[in-house]
Each structure stands twice: as structure tokens, then as C-alpha cells.
Amino acid sequence: MRPDRDKSRAVIVGAARYRRGPDLPPGIPAVADLPAVAANVAAMRRLVTDREHWDLPPEHCTVLLDPQHPQEVYDALARAAHEATDGLLFYYAGHGILAPRDGELYLALADADYTRYYNGVRFDDVRWILKNSVGVQSKVVVLDCCYAGRALSGAMSTGADIGARIRIDGTYLMTATAENVLAMSPEGDELTAFTGELLRCIDGGVPDHVEYLTVDRLFYLTRSALAARLLPLPQQREDNGGAAIVLARNRYHDLERGRAVAGVPELVPPGLRGALDAAPALLVETLGELRAAGRDEAVAGVLRATGALRTEQGVAAVVEHLQHRGRPGDAALVIAAAADRRPDSLLTLVETFRETGQPARVAELLTAVARGTTGTLTALVTRLHEAGAEADAAALRDAAVDARIGRPQTMIALVGGLLGAGLPDAVAAVIARAAARSAAPDTLALADALREAGQEPAALQLYATVTDLVLRRPIADVVAVAAAMSATGRDRDAEALIGRVAAAHPDPAGLGRVLQALWSMDVAVDDVGLVRHLADGPLADLVVALHGDRPATQARRLLLAVLAERPAASTAGMAVVLRRAGLPVEANRLIDAAVARPAAHSATLARLLGDAGDEHGVRRLVERAAGSAPETVAAFLEELEPAQHRFVWPVLGRAGAGRALAVAGRLAGARGDLMLAVLRCVAVAAAREEIGAALAAGGPIAAEVVLGLAALRHPGADRALEQVTGALTVPGPAADAALTGALGDPAHAVAVLLRVSTPESVRALCRTAAARDDLVPVVDLLRRPPGAGAHADVLVAQLRARLTDHRIFPVAAALHRHGRVGDAAALLAGRVADVPPGGPDPVALALAELFGRAAAAVRWSRWRIRRPGQPPAFAGLEPGEPVLHLVDGSALDRGWLLAFTATRVLYARTRPQPYRPWIPYTDLDRVTFTEAGPQTVAVRDDDGSVDSWTVGRGGPPAERVVALLRAVQETVAPVLDLHRRLSVDGRPG
């Protein structure tokens, strides 16, 4: 339905005359005048005001011929867009100039040229006005431009590119893109080529039953007409159903009626008009007579007139008669002439052939129609679909495709006709058949033609079948196809094509061109994946080259994404290359991004930058890492080279006490040295109040921080101690740090710890100390601070309650040797009655505990365990060597003894002959005791030697003795181990 005349508006602009600028640079051509444009403007005005077409009132059609200023055009278009609520047409004829900087289109006015393009109408402004005219139902833009300046701008390469560049949301766009003035306005033509053919197509109409012509239908008619004249082809872009907008009334049928009446005498040879009405048999006789008389041209004329003018039944009857009389050639000539009939008549003829039993003639007729005009063909396809003759419609469609193989312009006319007839399924079938039957170059040409006609989906379907040929084109053209694929939802095809073009150009220069094209067309693709395979060197070359052509953001994003997957060495090398290439800001961005990587990566990068002599890079990296979250800073410090810590301290010092304390807390325990270094950064001036406030929210890390501040004698320590005295929960790492001296003087640290800790934390400190090997200095520390003896008593009590025998005896001995006799006695209270003046022997104490239990267990036996009053004379002891415990089996058959001294165990046998082996306690861990028989113990050394100890008949079984010896092993070994680890002062030795 055509737009409402009262609710529609048109703005028709033409620039026919141009003034040459006075300072036009040499080599830059002047903008030529276009006299035909004035005729265009007048003709377009007549079209839109014609009562048969839009029928606009003259006041609703604004005509601007040779306007002097762009503002005139903007005002007229804005006013029309505001007033219109149904249809809005904007038409421009003149020169189109592409800005050399960015390829932006300007519609030239009188004072514009290729250097002063800005004196023209900026098409983006036209786009904005139309896009924002939301109250208009139908918007049509027709541009009839000469792009003679395109070669100068270098911005676009094809008309399809221009069509894509200037498309407008919600608007139908038809544009002509002639390369020069001659192509735009051929010599002798009153109108420009494009506008002239458009108006001729409107005047001629289409052989269809539709009342109105849509802009889409007119586009294909115009395109076919221009192609036939070898003139530049137009493009179209449509959005939101814009192709269905009506521009003119279909005048075909009115004209056809006049042509039919006038054409009868022209078709029939002179004197043979009556043959058209003769019966088939008489007609055949007449033809025979004419042929016999040598009048072959008259025969052909009668046959053609029969096909064109006789009724459908008459045609079918004549054809059938000719076939029966053996004249198939004459029948074919009739059918060929019938193929030019109107679509309705052709449909009737198809039905008549079938009804008269001539299916073969149907195929011949459809083939003949398929070779004819696109308008008749598409109209007949429509009629066949409407009549339910799907098989005939498909046959006609296939024959049309086969007749157009190798001729992409005629194929696109077929596609356009079917689209205009509203047959998208037929279009899909045509494209599929064309792709299957055409040679690859023809398929590519058809795809190009479809794309130029604005049929992107169909074109892309064909491009996907000939990607090998597409890839032979310039990179920018290949990427343009991929961009179109992506824009129409064919993402997989787009990715595959881009992947192949990148693979075909793997070097940095080629990949750079691919990326530039992708970015300029805003193609959403994994561009990082295209360069991921490049080694660091080629990647650096690529990035440097990209920075020379594009804004830094794209190249930077690409590089950061690739380096995020590579080791620190890649980032370090790239930063050095970028600085040498004069891109220090980009080098800085690499370093900034590395801060977000794991601490080990950042620290390694700092070291590598230092090795490369990039002092600026090291400083930047370290300073930014120092500004990260406290836990990140702590981890970074642990990984960083000590020599590079110097860059961190000023940052932490400026950050304030709260931040430094938070970082210090994360370092407590594991790296007390670093924690102290961080605490030194806390500004003295802000120490007291700021430290107090920070510690109040410090949580479990506050203990280490307090101790560190105290160890450093920091001015803020007193405030911190006042705030947390007796109320701080101290974790284990803090206690360890204080006890080991990691926080400075242990005595001072422990004193602070005892001052700030809660009672439970004090007990926890004692438990922590009890688990340490250096208990002796711990106790000593607890005795040293004034008034701290009570804490030492608590510790000793905890030790007495918690230590096992194998720990308590060596610790007591060490305390005694260290001069803490009272603590040693308190530790042994309840276990040992009297501590010898020389101090307790840990082995003797452990054996006493063991043999006290063992003696009670064998009291009933004929052998006994006792502490001898004097050593047995036969035991083989050294002079003065005391026997601590004795297993006495001398009363048994084959009497024997086991003597345990302070340093060894001895076995002595008196019968049948003396035998006295012995084993030092220090070697017990190398010996295995097992039963070799009921009364024999096997003593196996780890060197493989075996000794046998007989325990006599009538005594305990060997298993009892083996159990006792194993108990001695288990008791003495850990005691000796700890005893060895405690030096005279009790520290681990």
C-alpha cells in the first residue's frame, strides 16, 4: 500500500554545478558539473507528485537544486521528518566525496571539492536526523552519486562497502556508486544513468498482478537494466521491512493492453491474418502450401503469431496437430513464441497442455519461459505456486537457473525477481542449485552480485562454498566478508574464514593487515587466538608495527592478553623492546598489568627487568605491586629479590600506618625479618594515635605487630601496649617468633608478650614452649623479667603435666646443668625422690622408671630384676662402672645376668663357660632382638651378624626377655636423641 499523501513528505536535493576552489593543490581534480542532475530533480518531483504514484501535494515535496550551504539541507530534512508520520523520501543526486581521513561520506554542494569536502552535507548528520524520526513509518533514501574522488581517499574499495558503511537503522537505502562522471551520466542521456533507468522501470512496470511496486522490486528492475547497458550497478540496504515500502504504481498491465492491440498486424504476415482463426488441420495445410512456395519466412511468421495471439486452447491444439504430422520444429517455434505471453495466459496454457495429454510440451514451454525475461518468469512462478502446481514451479525455477549459469548478473536479476514476488523459499532453492552447478569463479561472482544487491544472507551462503577463491582476494576484502558473516549470525563461518586468512599470512606483516582490517570493521572475533602462536620476537615486531597504524588500545589489549599466558621473561623482553622502539607508555602498561599476576611472577619480572638494566621498569613494577592488597604485598615481598625491597619501603611509608601494619601482619611468623622491615616504614609522626586505631581493627595479626613494634622500640609501641595490655589473644606463630628471637631480644619480646596476653594466651605460650626443644632458655627467659617467676612456675607445671618421660628427663638434666636446679627438681617431683648433686642422669632416670615397672611384673619368678648393692664380679664391668639395674638369672641352670649401666647393657653367662658380650645404648637402634628358641634370644646387628644369648632352663621364656630388651630400646632411644640435641645451655646443638 502506498504511503498516505497527506502524512508523507519528500526532500529532493540536486547539486548540478560546482565552483572550483582557488587554492586546489596540483594533481587534485576539480569537481565536474553534472548537468543531468537538474533533470533528475525535476523528474523525481514529477514522480512523487504524480497522481498514479505517491500523489504528494506540491507543498509536501521540498526541492533544493544547487543549495549553497549544508544547513539548507539539514533544515529541510529535519522539518520534513518532523511533519511526516507515514512516508519520508530523501533523494540526492550529485558528487559523493569520501573524507580521506576516515572514509566518511559527504554529499557535495557547490563549494565542496576533494580537499574541502566539509562544505558538503555530512551523511552521518542525515543518518542522525532519519534515525531519530521515530514517528515516521516508512523511510527511503536514494543516493545517485559519482565517486570520482574515491581513488584519492583510499577509504573504500567497492560499492558494497559504501552501502554497508552508510546504512541507516529503520531505513531503506538505495545508492548508485558510479566511478566517474561518464559512468554516472552517459553522453546523450537526459538523466543520469541510475535515475533514468529507475524512472523507466517505474514507467514500464512489471508483468505481475501487483498494483504497486516496492522499492526492492524497483531496485532489481533497475539493476538488470543497468547491467544490460554495462553501467555501474546500484546497491541497496534495508532494515525492519524497508524493502516493502511502495514507491510507485505498477503500470505494466495498462501498457500491455495497448501493446497487444497494436501488435497484431505487426506479427501476422501480410495476407495471412485469416490463418490465425483457421482450424488446426487447415492451418497446417496452409503452412505446407507456403513452404512449397518457398515462403519460409511467412511460415515462421504465422507460427510465431499463432503462439503469441491464438487462444490457449488454440495453441495447444495446433501444437498437438503439428506433432502428429511430424513437424516438431514447427511446434517448438509456436511454443517459443507462446513463452512471451502474459503470465496469466502462460498458466492457462500449462494447464491446457496437461489437460490435452501433452506433458512434454509443458516442459518445453517452461524451458522457453526460463530463457526469457525475469519479470515474466517470476510472475509465472508466482502463478504456479498459487495454483498449487509446485512441481511445475520448481521445474521452471530450475530451468531458469540452468539458463543463467555463468551469467551472474542475470542470476541476480532472477533472485531479485523472486524476492520481489515474495518467494524466499524459491530464492533459497535457486541459490543452492546455482552453487551446485556453477563453477567456483561463477559462484563467487554471483555471491558478489548478491552482496552488492544487499542480499547478504544469500551471498554469504555462497561465499562459504568457495572460501578458497575468497582467500585469494586482498586481506581487507576477505575480512569484509567475514564481518558480514558475523553480522548476520554466521559466527562459525566468520571464525573459520578469519582463521584461514590468518593462517595464509602467518608473518607479522600479514597478521598486522588482518588485525587492522578486523579492528576497522569491528569484527567480534578471537583476535588473540590469531597471534598466540607467535614467538616473542615476531610478536614484538607485530605490536610495534600495529602501534604505527592504529590507536594504542587495540594493540595494547592484544599484547596484554597474549602475555597473560606467558612467563615473566616474555613480558620483560617485550617491555625492553617497546622502550627501544619509542613506546615507553606501552612498556609501562605491560608492567602495570603484570602486577595482577601471582606474586612469584611479578617478583621474577622485577628481577629480569633489573638484569636488563631497566631501572625505571623495576621501580614502576615494585611501586605498583606495593600498592596492592596487603596479602598481595606480603606475598610479593617474600618472592622479591632483597636488593629490590628498597623500592617498596617508601610506598608503604606514604600509605600510612594502617596499611603498613596490615602488610606486616601478613608476614608475621613465616618472615619475621620482613615484618620488622615493614614496620620500620611506619611514620614516626603518625605513630601513636594511628597505630592505636589500626591495631584496634587488626584482628589476629595484632599480636605479631605489637611484638614487632616493641622489638623495634617504635614510638607507637607504648600506645599499642596500653591499648591491648592483658587483652590480646596471641597465636602460636607470635609466641614462636618471640621465643626464637625473630622479633629481637627474646627476653624483651617475652616480657611484652606476657604483658599483653590474656591468661589463656599465657597458658598457650607455656604449651607452645613445652613443645620446643629449647626449653631451657625458655625457662630462663621466663625467670628473667622482674616479677615473671610465676610464669616460669606455670611453665614448669605445664611441662611436668604434659611431657613424656623421654622428654622430661633430658630437659630436667639440661635445666640442672644450666643452673636452674629448683626448676629441675620441680620438674622431677613425683618421679624421682632425690636428685643427685651432680644432676640427674636422663638415661638412669628413664631406666629407673622402666625397671620399676618391670621388677613388679617378674617378682614371682626364679629370676629377678634388682638394683645391686655391688656389681657382680663376673659381669666384665670396667672398674668403678656402676650397675644401675640387674636382671639376675644366676640361680638358674646355665646361670646368666643382664647388667644395665649408665651407658650400656651387658650379658654375662657363667656356665658352661664364661661369655660376656655388651651393647652401648647408643647402638641399640642398630640391633634387633628376637626369639631363637624357648630359652634363647637372637641378637641381630644391622651388619647381618647374629649373637645368641641363652637365658637358661627353668627361667622365664625368651619372649619375656626379648620384650624387656625391646622396652629398653624404646625408652632409651628418644631420651638419648633429645639429650644429644641439648647442649650445655639447653639450645639445640
Automatic annotation (TrEMBL):
Residues 9-206 form the Peptidase C14 caspase domain. Gene3D superfamilies: 3.40.50.1460. It comes from the Bacteria. InterPro entries: Caspase-like_dom_sf (IPR029030), Pept_C14_caspase (IPR011600). It holds the Pfam family Peptidase_C14. SUPFAM superfamilies: Caspase-like. GO terms for biological process: proteolysis. GO terms for molecular function: cysteine-type endopeptidase activity. This is Peptidase C14 caspase domain-containing protein. It comes from Dactylosporangium matsuzakiense. The lineage of its organism: Bacteria, Bacillati, Actinomycetota, Actinomycetes, Micromonosporales.
